Amino acid sequence: MQAPSFPKTSNTPSNNFQNKLSPPQKLPTLHGNNISLVQSTSVPIPRAISITAPTHHEIPNLDVEIDDNVTAYWDYQFLFMSQRSETDVPVSLRVVEGSIPSDFPIGTYFLTGPGMFADDHGSTVHPLDGHGYLRSFTIDSVTREVKFMARYIKTEAQVEERDPETGQWRFTHRGPFSVLKGGKMVGNTKVMKNVANTSVVKWGGKLLCLWEGGSPYEIESMSLDTVGTVNIMDDEYGSSKSLPADDHHHKETSSGGFWEVAAQVLKPMLYGVFKMPPKRLLSHYKIDTCRHRLLMMSCNAEDMLLPRSNFTFYEFDSNFKLVESQEFNIPDHLMIHDWAFTDNHYILFGNRIKLDVGGSMAAVCGLSPMISALSVNPSKPTSPIYLLPRFKNSHEKRDWKVPIEAPSQLWVLHVGNAFEAKNEKTGDSDIQIQASGCSYEWFNFQKMFGYDWKSGKLDPSMMNVNDKLLPHLVKISVKLDSEGSCKKCNVNDLGQWSKASDFPVINQDYCGRKNTYTYASTSSGSRQALPNFPFDTVVKINSTNKSVSSWSTGRRRFIGEPIFIPRGNGKEDDGYLLVVEYAVSTQRCYLVILDAKLIGENSALVARVEVPRYLNFPMVAKLNYNDPPQVGRPEVRIVQIPDTRVTKPMDDSI
Ligand SMILES: [Fe+2]
């Protein structure tokens, strides 16, 4: 098993990219050549290469075999197209393939994700700044029906930016990743735009849509009506709302010093001028099914700009009552998007960042996105892993402030699971983290998804460079001695799946404890013009027998993030995978149900359910399935290589 070897970092990551998918010099003509998006002159063609609202008259090239760069470019644009249609009346969906299995747990699959990328006044926004578009698939295995609803979350920003009379949109908030072209640029301090678009969780009777920069919005789960924000983190100005110190709350305070003074100076500006909430609730949450707890984590707003980080962890019981809370201060400048927990630890894989002074000046002036104030920091060849004691009464001997340094430089995007095991004879502990990670050289805050804030265009080549740089599935193994000192730490591929992959998920019942199976979105590599992204394949990795199997969708079809729904008999891979599929050639979305045990077999597809074309939605999404069992989250994928199977030996475990 070889460790991922990423090329050395550079300060100009994009310079190494092959720009093989640059936009056409001019739009495809209306008259039939094979790169036209339309079939006849009577059908309007999208006039902007930037993300545009669908007109529902546009018909793309239906040829699924076409595999040229121009079609690839346009297919990529369609993935991030705005959707203006909503339905607050449940729509019955057509099962176009297979059938809803009678043992499918009855429940509702919620997805939130950005849905509005371009307004009616010339502004486009980065996909991550798109307004949250909440969808629900209610699956009834008795009637074998699926009902669908879709509504925008009425966040404060959404209410301001959409005219309820005309239905027109005018973006007034910059959003952290965007620059307004049709709105106020210079002097616009309306940066924070809580669009509730990053993930959804149902817990303690509340359905919440989360955003990485602020408080969640509560949604009424039957009507998808927006109730309002829920402050589960803080008082108005940053005092922890969590438990008192003599209860189960533990706070590791900083010792003061220069950066603490700097934080006190920054806070009034961030809170008062830029209206940032004191804490950012991360969109990735965890569910400890053994303890019936929802685990969440937040960061202090000012830490984005300072070389120190405050992380607060919250554990809620099944009634959404806060039962544990801890705050940790780490003297490093880190960007954490996802994290992990075990029986004894919270685990942070530290992505190192630094302040970009020039970018900060431009951002404050409104000339560049606020995110341009930050850049990755590749100054160290290693990656820090913080093992934070999960419980206050931990008798751990090791100093949690000292990170374990993984031997290679890795930017972790998503964590599938982590677990630990102690050898009672030696006292040694083995810890494993399963994650997706990419190269520092590739990751660029200003170019995520290939969005160019200067042009407002999406460049698919950003996501289709040398695949060694792109996100892959990795396994980080740590061995500690009885004193807690690190004896060994290595980073290996998770399985022998070498293709670009992301969104590792598992059976949530195994979260925090040893799992055998990991599922993820990946690429079949069958499309020459889009070899790595968007994803078109679900891969299943078995860590015990070392096998890897996969399922791919049809050509010019893409998938998001899978989610595992257990049948409920306790067997780890006995359940279903839900994934949303987007057939870009026909602009149709489908909910696909796969039998997780049969991934790799021709019979893996259980049902394909079609969303009406007028309710077609962009692919980026985060999911949660509930009602009966509380489960995880999702996103989308392709290939006509019907169902592919790959079984390869693998060679290591924890
Ligand atoms: Fe994420």
TrEMBL record:
<comment type="similarity">
    <text>Belongs to the carotenoid oxygenase family.</text>
</comment>
<keyword id="KW-0408">Iron</keyword>
<feature type="compositionally biased region" description="Polar residues">
    <location>
        <begin position="7"/>
        <end position="22"/>
    </location>
</feature>
<keyword id="KW-0479">Metal-binding</keyword>
<feature type="binding site">
    <location>
        <position position="337"/>
    </location>
    <ligand>
        <name>Fe cation</name>
    </ligand>
</feature>
<protein>
    <submittedName>
        <fullName>Oxygenase</fullName>
    </submittedName>
</protein>
<feature type="region of interest" description="Disordered">
    <location>
        <begin position="1"/>
        <end position="32"/>
    </location>
</feature>
<dbReference type="InterPro" id="IPR004294">
    <property type="entry name" value="Carotenoid_Oase"/>
</dbReference>
<keyword id="KW-0223">Dioxygenase</keyword>
<keyword id="KW-0560">Oxidoreductase</keyword>
<dbReference type="Pfam" id="PF03055">
    <property type="entry name" value="RPE65"/>
</dbReference>
<dbReference type="GO" id="GO:0046872">
    <property type="term" value="F:metal ion binding"/>
</dbReference>
<feature type="binding site">
    <location>
        <position position="414"/>
    </location>
    <ligand>
        <name>Fe cation</name>
    </ligand>
</feature>
<dbReference type="GO" id="GO:0009570">
    <property type="term" value="C:chloroplast stroma"/>
</dbReference>
<dbReference type="GO" id="GO:0016121">
    <property type="term" value="P:carotene catabolic process"/>
</dbReference>
<feature type="binding site">
    <location>
        <position position="248"/>
    </location>
    <ligand>
        <name>Fe cation</name>
    </ligand>
</feature>
<dbReference type="GO" id="GO:0045549">
    <property type="term" value="F:9-cis-epoxycarotenoid dioxygenase activity"/>
</dbReference>
